[in-house]
Amino acid sequence: MNINDFESSELLITAVDSLSELHAVLQSTEPNIILWDSDEGVDSYFHLKFLKIRSSIGLCTSNQGQFSGFKKIGQKILVYSDQKIVVIRNNFKLSWKARVDGTIFEIFVHNGKVIVVNEIGVNCFSIDDGFKLWSIYSDLIVGHNVDGDDITLKTEGGSIHYSLKNGEPIT
């Protein structure tokens, strides 16, 4: 689970054994939110307690949370797991949600936009409302590199350079 944006004094992560146990743990913390509890294929449950703001997230995921993570975006928290993204406001209400076509490799903020690199492309979302601004689709991505306003996607067939401003190829 990727939690690099948070210090150990801010966030405590605990694995729990079942959805019912997760619900019980969350009852002791207000406000709280539970994510993806009705999704198929869920095999892992995590209680994420934000120590400074005394609130919690219940995260239901597959793959033991391997493709899950959290990012700080100003006063919001972006949560992702596999192909799903949600952004939660500081009052723990859902701000926006999105889904991408492939398993998420990396999420970063660039010039006020949320950039999502997944296994078959890149998506760009408005940071405010989650509106999809542009998408890039490619062969299976085996690596990528960000350099300023450009991203290079590496596939088995070679590398292609794109602009992070508009998703257009750079020749």
Describe the 3D structure.
With 171 residues, this protein is mainly β. The chain has 2 domains: 99 residues, no CATH class; 71 residues, Thrombin, subunit H (Beta Barrel), CATH 2.40.10. 5% of the residues lie in helices and 53% in strands. A 4-stranded mixed β-sheet has the order 1-3-4-2, covered by helices on one side. The model has no long low-confidence stretch (mean pLDDT 88).
Fill in the keyword field for this structure:
5% helix, four-stranded mixed sheet, Thrombin, subunit H, mainly beta, 1 helix, 171 residues, four-stranded antiparallel sheet, 15 strands, elongated, 53% strand
Short précis:
This protein is 5% helix and 53% strand. With 171 residues, it is mostly beta strands. The longest helix is centred in the N-terminal third of the chain and has 8 residues, at 19-26.
Number of separate helices: 1
Distance between the termini: 36 Å
Order of helices and strands: EHEEEEEEEEEEEEEE
Major β-sheet annotation: 4 strands, mixed
The shape, in one word, is elongated
Number of E-type strands: 15
Secondary-structure-based class equals mainly beta
> Helical percent range?
under 10%
Write the layout of secondary structure elements.
Layout: E1 11-16, H1 19-26, E2 32-35, E3 44-50, E4 55-61, E5 68-73, E6 76-81, E7 84-88, E8 94-99, E9 104-110, E10 113-118, E11 121-126, E12 132-137, E13 141-147, E14 150-155, E15 158-163
Parallel strand pairs: 2-4
Antiparallel strand pairs: 1-3, 3-4, 5-6, 6-7, 7-8, 9-10, 10-11, 11-12, 13-14, 14-15
